[in-house]
Amino acid sequence: MENSDTKAFRGEDIWVALGLLTRLPLPARHWNAARPAALAAWAYPLAGLVVGVVACALGAAALWLGTPAGFVAALILASLSVLTGAMHEDGMADAADGLWGGHDVTRRLEIMKDSHIGAFGVIALIAGFALRWSALTALIAAGTLWAPVLAVAMISRAAMVGVMHTLPHAREMGLSHMTGRPGLPALGIACALAFVAAITMLGAPGLAILAIAALTALACAAIARAKIGGQTGDILGAIQQMTEITMYACLAALLI
Predict the structure, then answer these.
(1) Residue 181 phi, psi (nearest 5)
(2) pTM value?
(3) How many Cβ atoms sit within 10 Å of the Cβ of residue 113?
(4) Are 174 and 228 in contact (CB under 8 A)?
(5) What range does the record give for the signal peptide (predicted)?
(6) What is the rounded (10 degree) CA torsion for 235, 249, 152, 116?
(7) What are the helix and strand counts (H, E) for the chain?
(8) Which of 155, 167, 189, 230 is nearest to 39 (CA)?
(9) 48-65 tens-digit pLDDT
(10) pLDDT, tens digit, for every residue of 18-33?
């Protein structure tokens, strides 16, 4: 299943990506169990686009009703969490607890697997929400909503694909291991989708956003490799959240 490039990409990959990364009430659909789920990783940015559109629609409706920018930003972030089952936030909390709370690889992986949340996880969740909320509030107050939210949602999920491809699995079980590692074709399409989103939605500043997302993902991947020797589902969730934070901060600095 590792780095499988042998099968063509299919439209059903989008369905699989939505099933893996969202909690949308999708109708039941047959999936070929022999087809590695990692082949659907190219569609992760499209899953981000879908949840981003729903969240932005709710935010736009709230703006139309006259609610303040801070409320709209909180509504969008809460909507994104609900639509994804807060899986990325959960991953960041578990990764923070494990990477900074354990004294060796075995203990770090045990902590990340534990369903309880520790001090590092709580701090990561609060800080992550506060940082995203403050930057998004500033963007909305400046008159921009759809473009930054959609672009960030797509690019942050492309960053996940990059780490999935680059890092080995840290453990021999779990969602990340079951999904597999995407090959270069899947990574290439995911990156192409992220590039198109950045340029069409953000223009020239999109290049800076792509760069900051790549640097953030590389830094997080380096920490994961040093701390636990690879990636897990929690690490991928943390990648999505960390790139989202840095991209929103960069956008607020560039566009306001």
Answers:
(1) -120, 125
(2) 0.94
(3) 14
(4) no
(5) none
(6) 30
(7) 11, 2
(8) 189
(9) 999 999 999 999 999 999
(10) 999 999 988 766 556 5
